[in-house]
């Protein structure tokens, strides 16, 4: 392995020699005894080469068998420009160097080690998010079961307007408010506790974070399994524990995207889509309940899966973090042979390279001159940035819509269906089924970002745009599309027509899948990797404070507005329009950055 010391011991000869055209050419040779660079750090040191004179570049690297690894005809286009009498500016990032220099086959050999293990980690992580992480958001299905089990029935009051032999539906407004309060608390903890969860993940690494998640999740499922109508108040404890355990599962799994390079955003959004789709688990519990399987049996079954979570933690996940970019010789899991110190050393090295890649501005570096590169920014400088502030507004408003809709869906359907339980059950099932398709919707958002990023990277070679600008440009269409989907969902949800709710369900699941997948992907693209856990947790925690508005809004609709949400819906639709400012501001920032190199 080529470390820094080994790299400095290379036998390099460089000089000028005549060229038929009279132009100088630059020759660079490696010792035949020197193996090709195996680490990202060595590749980055050697291949960050910039030539600004008229030149012709030749490189020859030989392995221990004296076989040529690079020939003139295999050089990238940038080198051919030198022989055409054009100045060439070469700046290769650590991630590009192995593929460009050693060729696709060698790059695959370096980066494809342990492919089976990585695929196993990807698929089991997908199942974990799909089956456990975001089950809270199937709340409408579970409320149906709780009501059938007479949870909080004592809060229902007979209708004072009932006369004669006519038996009216009891007034269960207080019962609905109690269930809404439990969901509000659970969804608040789902977001607010993401910040300390992110800190735990950053500070204590993957294994500790996952063991905490398993403890909380198992405790919650066992609590729900053994409570009854008399002890229903324990739901105030169980649901927050369930959600915090689930969000820790998600956070520890998002890093799996780092293992797959250019598909990183796609996998992150896929996992977030699986998180959304896990709400269908409560639908399955509801359907099993209607077939005679008790609530207790279903949740005990979920508790048994703790053994699977533990096994995955030690066999298929790292003890520390999965770095990005991934070093060519990176290994993880029980059989990796790396101790925690060695693993963290590789992670720190990779994160340093990522920071350098994201914060480098090629044209501006040259203007600054040697030794005057920009200092790394602090965590709080990112938190106080305009970019982070508008992203928080974007997330908070759209999320409030979704939380309010999910938390009040049972009450909304009961009102629109005039109390018909069969109709309410049918629409509840339809809603839960659509939630399952979140895992299919979310990857399209990540795929859109990945494709645009690759396109803009090609353009950046000629424009001199920074890696950060390329990443931000690729996120703009995703942010705008998510806002547009939410606006359509909000308008449909505001119309009190029961059949129209099928369209609302479809737009809701697509919008929600794009929201959380886009949120995580944007944070990975727009901010340094070493701050991801804290920034992800902080933005979710701050948006959780906004989500607390759902309970007073629900109470306001049930009370002063007498179950007519028209005015509230109009205000929320106007707030949704405000979210379009975020993609516009990101676009404007990218446009300003793209103009700067030309004027520098």
From TrEMBL:
Signal peptide: none annotated. The chain crosses the membrane at residues 179-201, 208-227, 233-256, 268-289, 295-315, 388-406, 426-449, 470-499, 505-528, 535-554, 566-588. It comes from the Eukaryota. SUPFAM superfamilies: MFS general substrate transporter. Pfam families: MFS_1. Gene3D superfamilies: MFS general substrate transporter like domains. One of its GO terms (molecular function) is transmembrane transporter activity. It is found in: Membrane. GO terms for cellular component: membrane. It is a multi-pass membrane protein. The keyword tRNA-binding does not apply. Keywords: Membrane, Transmembrane, Transmembrane helix. PANTHER family: EQUILIBRATIVE NUCLEOBASE TRANSPORTER 1 (PTHR20765:SF1), SOLUTE CARRIER FAMILY 43 MEMBER 3-RELATED (PTHR20765). This is Solute carrier family 43 member 3. It comes from Lynx pardinus.
């Amino acid at each position: 392995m080529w470390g820094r010391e080994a790299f400095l011991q290379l036998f390099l000869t460089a000089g000028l020699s005549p060229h038929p055209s009279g132009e100088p050419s630059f020759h660079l040779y490696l010792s035949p005894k020197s193996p090709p660079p195996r680490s990202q750090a060595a590749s980055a040191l050697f291949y960050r080469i910039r030539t600004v004179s008229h030149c012709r570049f030749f490189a020859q690297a030989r392995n221990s068998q004296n076989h040529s690894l690079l020939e003139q005809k295999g050089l990238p286009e940038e080198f051919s420009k030198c022989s055409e009498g054009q100045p060439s500016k070469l700046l290769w990032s650590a991630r590009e160097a192995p593929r460009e220099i050693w060729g696709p086959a060698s790059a695959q050999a370096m980066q494809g080690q342990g492919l089976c293990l990585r695929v196993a980690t990807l698929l089991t992580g997908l199942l974990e998010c799909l089956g456990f992480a975001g089950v809270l958001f199937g709340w409408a299905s579970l409320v149906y079961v709780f009501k059938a089990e007479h949870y909080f029935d004592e809060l229902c009051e007979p209708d004072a307007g009932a006369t004669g032999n006519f038996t009216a539906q009891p007034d269960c407004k207080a019962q609905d408010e109690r269930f809404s309060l439990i969901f509000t608390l659970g969804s608040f903890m789902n977001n607010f506790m993401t910040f300390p969860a992110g800190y735990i993940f950053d500070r204590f690494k993957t294994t500790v974070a996952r063991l905490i998640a398993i403890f909380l999740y198992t405790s919650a499922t066992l609590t729900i399994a053994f409570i009854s109508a008399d002890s229903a108040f324990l739901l105030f404890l169980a649901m927050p524990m369930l959600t915090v355990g689930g969000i820790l599962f998600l956070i520890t799994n998002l890093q799996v995207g780092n293992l797959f390079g250019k598909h990183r955003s796609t996998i992150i959004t896929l996992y977030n889509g699986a998180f959304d789709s896990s709400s269908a688990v409560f639908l399955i519990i509801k359907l099993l309940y209607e077939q005679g399987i008790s609530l207790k049996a279903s949740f005990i079954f979920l508790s048994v899966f703790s053994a699977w979570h533990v096994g995955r933690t030690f066999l298929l996940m790292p003890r520390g973090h999965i770095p990005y970019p991934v070093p060519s010789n990176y290994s993880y899991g029980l059989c990796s042979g790396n101790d925690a110190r060695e693993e963290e050393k590789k992670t720190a090295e990779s994160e340093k390279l990522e920071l350098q890649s994201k914060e480098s501005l090629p044209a501006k570096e040259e203007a600054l001159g040697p030794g005057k590169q920009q200092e790394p920014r602090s965590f709080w400088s990112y938190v106080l940035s305009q970019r982070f502030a508008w992203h928080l507004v974007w997330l908070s408003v759209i999320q409030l819509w979704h939380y309010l809709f999910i938390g009040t869906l049972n009450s909304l359907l009961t009102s629109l269906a005039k109390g018909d339980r069969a109709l309410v059950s049918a629409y509840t099932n339809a809603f839960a089924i659509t939630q399952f398709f979140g895992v299919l919707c979310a990857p399209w958002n990540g795929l859109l970002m990945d494709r645009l990023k690759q396109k803009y990277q090609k353009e950046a070679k000629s424009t001199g745009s920074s890696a950060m600008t390329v990443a931000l440009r690729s996120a703009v269409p995703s942010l705008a599309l998510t806002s547009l989907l939410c606006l359509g969902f909000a308008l449909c949800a505001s119309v009190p027509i029961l059949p129209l709710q099928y369209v609302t369900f479809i737009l809701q699941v697509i919008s929600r899948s794009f929201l959380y997948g886009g949120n995580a992907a944007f944070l990975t693209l727009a901010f340094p990797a070493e701050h991801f856990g804290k920034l992800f947790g902080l933005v979710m925690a701050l948006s959780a404070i906004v989500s607390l508005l759902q309970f007073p809004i629900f109470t306001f609709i049930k009370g002063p507005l007498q179950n007519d949400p028209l005015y509230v819906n109009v205000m929320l639709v106007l707030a949704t329009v405000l979210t379009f400012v975020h993609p516009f501001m990101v676009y404007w920032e990218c446009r300003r950055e793209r103009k700067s190199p030309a004027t520098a």
